[in-house]
Design goal:
heterodimer; A: about 425 residues; alpha/beta; Urease, subunit C, domain 1; TIM Barrel; B: alpha/beta; globular
Chain lengths: ~425, ~325
């Protein structure tokens, strides 16, 4: 393995509070040094990163890679390559595959597919309950033994408070978070977008903010009861932010994520019945976006996660009621963060790197998210000023369902290293 | 004849201007007379092919469109979802492409999903008329309600109109709200809060919680059908109680300071949202709405086909020359 010296970039490593021009040396798959004017070992590749940003590789705690079951819309390999192209060096796929990732063999299969792909690392999330049916717990110990890093019944919210209580308690043995998609199914019912003025005008069935907040409140109470670690997926409302803030003040073990689209779009994106604006949880209102940004800034919300949800184009080319929820996000997340959040003044660049790399590693206890000596050689080199236009046809993902097509974004990934090896090389690098 | 007053489609009243709505109503006036003739046919749309694509059961609207088309001499085909390729799993986009491939001129569509009419219109070159999409809009119903009110009062501006019942699930309510507001009426809604959508006041509509208050205020009531399914889905305890609390009854109307004009888009649930004596009473214009429905739909089809409002009189007058 050839050493790599990344020379002269602005090195941002939130794990050690570093933000300044420096060199980064990768050797034997790990970070071997960070400092000014490092000398290149014999045979090292030298990457000129002057004017560029060098950061620990991004980590996405919430993706859907669709394998096994829907290999026509994404596979572990295509998802891992899309991740690498987006600057991610690790992703955590949800277990709502077919069959469900609820046993050690299923987890092992995903790990094996990821190793064969040789792109971003893949850390599977196992199911909380067998078949995600919400009745009987999966074998957490065996899931973890096979490589799972968390459990979740994402997409099939755990409606039984008893079962979630047991999951939170049982997970403590293995020190893994229990991730929940917070949704009261009777309030969500057959809603397709945020309930408000826009849904009233469009005549689309609404999903009130309370459908999420009721379950956020319940989950926080159960985390407090059990001492377990609850991880709240894709928060979308200002009420949820407030509930989490108060719980964190009380010391409840809660972490939370927010998607790039909930940080940048509102329910008005559904105008014209654009099915690429159909998400669950739905896009909310400007006040929610502002509260989510503020929560991300002050640490109430820990991480940005994409909820990368590939769908076949036929599936989105439908009546709004019948189209599936969700969008792909791996290849637009960093650009949206740099353009909307950093340039928009919501976060500093080091804060963005923290929310997309260092904090996700901490939340799910993953290696990475750091450029300290001995950390995995997972690094992204970004040109923060390069402007590009989102072209879904050019995605590495098999799917193109995004509302951001045609949008001009800043921040282009030039190089992604995983374990010291180049897994993505952008046009200009 | 190339100037288009409506654009390619009629999907909703929300995007129309007051002038466009008035154009349609004015264009409908001369078409009313066609239906009063012994020979109810004019050659205006001769050679045009129109598909009536109904993905939901409909009697009144479908027949009204069909009469409008036939009285304009168009060739029409009716497609109902049941028994068609739709039942075999064909997607709406494929249905649209197949219609397009048959070189039809217009599609009149009723569909259970909001936005379906726009979805179709965005994908085919033919004109699309929305005959009701989900709980979004039913623009020709809104137009015929406007025409009926204008017939009765001679104006829309300044009228106080209250729409009563299940506003949440009503495409008729939305089209009425937009049409009435654009033409300067004051609009209110009245119904149980469980059937009023969030943000309705932000559209510029006032809300009455009690039907007695609405009756005190209004010049006209547009009474919507209450569907039995709403009870099962938990929006209402019972139709019986709905009638007791919100029903439009003779007793309630007698306490009004003026005679209220009563509209209903049909089909009526007699004894639920409206008493028979009100529906059949002297201030009911419910059958007038049905008559106007044909004229309004003739006007819409005529305008979408490229007709000019000021030529409508001449267009329909030609029937005498042709002698059909």
């Amino acid at each position: 393995m050839k050493p790599v010296l990344i020379r002269g970039g602005r090195v941002i490593d939130p794990s050690q509070g570093h933000d300044g021009v420096a060199d980064v040396l990768l050797a034997d798959g790990r970070v071997a040094g960070l400092g000014p004017a490092l000398s290149a070992p014999d045979g090292a590749e030298v990457v000129d990163a002057r004017g560029k940003v060098v950061a620990p590789g991004l980590i996405d705690l919430h993706v859907h890679l669709r394998e096994p079951g829907r290999e026509d819309v994404e596979t572990v390999a295509t998802g891992a390559r899309a991740a690498a192209a987006g600057g991610f060096t690790a992703v955590c796929p949800m277990p709502n595959t077919d069959p469900v990732t609820d046993n050690q063999a299923a987890v092992g299969f995903i790990v094996k597919q990821a190793q064969a792909a040789g792109a971003a690392r893949v850390y599977p999330i196992g199911a909380i309950s067998l078949g995600q049916k919400g009745q009987q717990l999966s074998e957490f110990g065996e899931l973890v033994g096979a490589g799972a890093v968390a459990v979740s019944d994402d997409g099939h919210p755990v409606t039984s408070s008893h079962l979630l209580r047991m999951a939170l308690s049982y997970a403590r043995t293995f020190d893994i978070p229990v991730a929940d998609h917070c949704e009261d199914p009777t309030l969500k019912a057959n809603g397709v977008m945020h309930e408000g003025l826009v849904s009233t005008r469009l005549g689309l069935r609404g999903i009130p903010a309370a459908a999420e907040e009721i379950m956020v409140a319940r989950n926080l109470l159960l985390a407090e009861l059990t001492g377990g670690h609850i991880h709240l997926c894709h928060m979308s409302t200002r009420g949820s932010v407030e509930l989490i803030r108060r719980a964190k003040e009380k010391g409840v073990r809660v972490t939370a994520e927010v998607t790039p689209h909930h940080l940048t779009l509102t329910d008005e994106a559904c105008e014209g019945y654009d099915t690429n604006a159909k998400m669950n949880p739905p896009l909310r209102q400007a006040a929610d976006v502002a509260a989510l940004r503020a929560g991300l800034k002050d640490g109430t919300i820990d991480v940005i996660a994409t909820d990368h949800a590939p769908h076949h184009y036929d599936a989105k080319e439908r009546e709004f009621d019948d189209a599936p929820f969700g969008i792909v996000g791996l290849e637009t997340a960093l650009g949206l963060g740099l353009t909307e959040l950093v340039r928009g003044g919501a976060l500093t660049l080091p804060e963005l790197i923290d929310r997309m790399s260092t904090a996700p590693a901490r939340v799910f206890h993953l290696p990475g998210g750091s450029l300290q000596r001995g950390a995995p050689g997972d690094v992204v080199v970004v040109d923060p000023d390069a402007s590009w236009r989102v072209d879904p046809a050019a995605f590495y993902s098999k799917s193109r369902n995004t509302p951001f097509g045609g949008r001009d974004l800043n921040g282009r990934v030039l190089r992604t290293f995983v374990g010291g090896l180049t897994v993505f090389r952008g046009d200009a690098a | 004849m190339t100037e288009r007053f409506l654009g390619k489609d009629l999907l909703a009243l929300e995007p129309l201007t007051a002038d466009q709505i008035r154009f349609i109503l004015d264009t409908a006036e001369p078409f009313k007379e066609v239906s009063e003739r012994t020979i109810k046919k004019v050659p205006t749309l001769r050679g045009k092919t129109i598909v009536n694509l109904f993905f939901e059961a409909s009697t009144r609207t479908r027949i009204s469109f069909e009469f409008a088309e036939k009285r304009l001499s168009a060739d029409t085909v009716n497609v109902a979802a049941a028994g068609s390729s739709v039942e075999k799993g064909e997607t709406l986009v494929d249905t649209a492409r197949n219609l397009e491939a048959m070189r039809i001129d217009m599609v009149v569509m009723r569909h259970p999903s909001s936005g379906a009419a726009q979805f179709l219109a965005d994908r085919i070159r033919s004109n699309v008329v929305n005959a009701g999409d989900g709980t979004h809009e039913h623009p020709t119903q809104g137009l015929l309600d406007l025409l009926t009110l204008r017939d009765k009062f001679g104006r829309i501006e300044g009228l106080k109109v209250c729409i009563c019942g299940d506003i949440l699930h009503s495409r008729v309510a939305r089209s009425n709200i937009w049409g009435l507001l654009k033409l300067g009426a004051q609009v209110a809604v009245c119904g149980p809060a469980s059937l009023l959508p969030l943000g309705i006041e932000e559209l510029g509509v006032s809300v009455f919680r009690r039907i007695e208050d609405a009756i005190q205020w209004a010049d006209a009531l547009n009474v919507l059908r209450i569907q039995l399914e709403r009870m099962h889905a938990g929006y209402l305890p019972s139709l019986r109680e709905y009638n007791r609390v919100f029903g439009v009854t003779v007793e309630r109307l007698e306490r009004a300071p003026r005679d209220l004009v009563i509209l209903h888009p049909g089909p009526m649930n007699r004894g639920v949202e409206i008493d028979s004596r009100v529906a059949d009473g002297p201030h009911s214009v419910i059958l007038g709405q049905v008559t106007n429905g044909v004229a309004v739909r003739m006007a819409v089809l005529y305008l979408l086909a490229g007709g000019r409002p000021d030529m409508a009189e001449a267009a329909k007058g030609r029937s005498a020359e042709v002698g059909e």
